[in-house]
Every structure is written in C-alpha cells, then in structure tokens.
Design brief:
Layout (H helix, E strand, L loop, with lengths): L1 E9 L4 E9 L18 E6 L8 H5 L2 H8 L1 E5 L9 E2 L4 E2 H16 L9 E6 L1 H12 L6 E5 L5 H5 L13 H8 L12 H7 L7 E7 L5 H13 L4 E6 L5 H14 L16
C-alpha cells in the first residue's frame, strides 16, 4: 500500500493544496497467489470532519489496511472547517474543488477508473454533510455516497445567533462566512433535501448512512433517513453503539467498504498481516 502526499495548485481555491492518496499498487500476496489483473482502481474520495485535515482518516482509522485488502484507491483532501461548499464572497469553491477539480486532477495523476459506478464519496460529520451534498450535486460523477455521523444541521444554521457564550462554529457570523447568506441557504445547492427534489430519482446515487446511538447528531441523521424514505429513495442505514468519535468511525468505514461494490478483496502481506 502506497501513501502519497500530493501538493498542487487549485484553481477552485486559488492556492496550493495538499491531499493524501492511498494506492494499493505494491500489494504482495502469499506465494502461489496471483494479484487481480491490472485495471484502473475504483476510488473513494474520503472527507474529514471539522477541526481535521487530510491526515485525519489515516491517523484515526485503519483505512490504509482496508484499502489494500479491498484494492481501492482512497483520496483524502482537506476541508478546513468550510463544510465543502462554495463561497463566492471569499472565492473558496470547495464544492467545485471536491466534485470537479479533485476528481479530474487525481484521475490525471493516478490509474483511476473514470466510471461513475467506480467512483465513491464518503465522510464523517462535516465530511458526511460534504459527501451527501456533493455526491448529490455531482451525481453524474459519484455513483455511491456514504455519510457517517453526518452534520445535517441546516435547521441549526438557520436559527443560529451570535453571542459571547456561543462556540465559534455555532455562531451565525462564522456560519455566514462559510455558507454565505443564511436566509438563502434553504433550497440552495447546499441543502441536502432540496437537492433530492431537484434530481431525477433514477439519477440519485446509492446512499449509505450510519450514526452512533449516543451521537448528538442522531436525531438529524434519523430525520434525513425518514425524509429519503418518504421520497422513495433507497438508503441503507445503520446504527450502533458509540458517540461522535473515532472508535465508531473506524468500525463503520469498514462497513462502508463492505457495502460498496468492491469485488477484488484479498488480504495482502504486510507488517500487520504476516503468515
């Protein structure tokens, strides 16, 4: 498994950005076993949560090991507390970066499949919101969406206020610096419910969601699953013990890989798997 750091200039963000890429190009099997025939990798674009960076998933989970086992490329960008949405005022087009530029750049850099059915997006918390919104917005690119403990908090954002005793990430002024005018948020391309209603049902990607039974975002995730089902959208939803924490996400990112159409699973030899 190769872990590669890439710096490149982003036109969407008008600066140099850093991403991490996991590529199982150096997989070694036991004597007598053959690797799958070479072909472009299926690819998971994996988004971190608030306060995180492009190394979060590598540091917090066993995604490197499982990417090797499932023979899938994993691309991890940095979202910088900006919820992966476009902001015209600051010229920070994170949504365009995730849904267009990052996919195009990584496909030019690495041997990745260009097929929609081989291109996946997932994330946790803020990244779960980003995966759902951008997976829907760019549904012609992504065939599968997975959100873990997703920050589906538009109702909170709409009602947000400023005040000395309010954490900065809940303040209206901060949220407006990220999302733009709050009074224009509902019904926009940042609204995960409005996007569902704007897309033909046959074009909506496959959706997986999970949330911990002690997670403070449990109600919001249950409500969105209920909304999807009310609109006859197929969704796989799971709950399990845990809060808003890495122990839960480490367990459920494996469940995401098990849910995705990954058919080349085979454990390779490594320092953590020696026969």
């Amino acid at each position: 498994m190769a872990l590669i750091k890439v710096d490149f200039f982003s036109q969407s963000l008008m600066r140099t950005v850093t991403i991490q890429a996991i590529l199982p190009v150096d997989k070694i099997l036991e004597v007598g076993e053959e690797l799958p025939s070479p072909k472009p990798f299926k690819t998971l674009y994996l988004l971190h949560g608030i306060f995180g960076n492009d190394m979060d998933w590598v540091s917090g989970t066993r995604i490197q090991r499982w990417a090797q086992d499932y023979n899938v490329a994993v691309i991890m960008p940095a979202g910088e507390n900006k919820f992966y949405v476009d902001n015209e005022r600051s010229h920070e087009y994170y949504s365009r970066f995730i849904g267009e530029e990052l996919v195009d750049m990584t496909r030019r850099l690495f041997p990745l499949s260009h097929q929609r059915e081989d291109t996946f997006i997932a994330g946790l918390s803020m990244g779960g919101y980003g995966a759902i919104v951008n997976g829907l917005k760019y549904h012609q690119t992504f065939g599968y969406i997975a959100g873990l403990s997703s920050a589906l908090i538009l109702n909170m954002i709409v009602k947000s206020k400023d005040g000395d005793n309010i954490p900065y990430m809940n303040k209206r002024s901060y949220l407006e610096s990220v999302f733009g005018p709050i009074d224009q948020l509902i019904g926009s391309d940042k609204d995960y419910k409005a996007l569902i209603e704007q897309i033909s049902q046959k074009d909506i990607p496959h959706i997986y969601m999970a949330c911990g039974s002690e997670d403070f975002l449990l109600k919001e995730n249950r409500d969105y699953v209920k909304y999807l089902k009310a609109h006859h959208i197929a969704v796989t939803y799971e709950e399990g013990p845990g809060g808003h924490e890495w122990d839960f996400w480490d367990k459920y990112i494996l469940k995401v890989l098990e849910w995705l159409p990954l058919t080349d699973k085979k454990e390779g030899l490594s320092s953590g798997h020696v026969q």
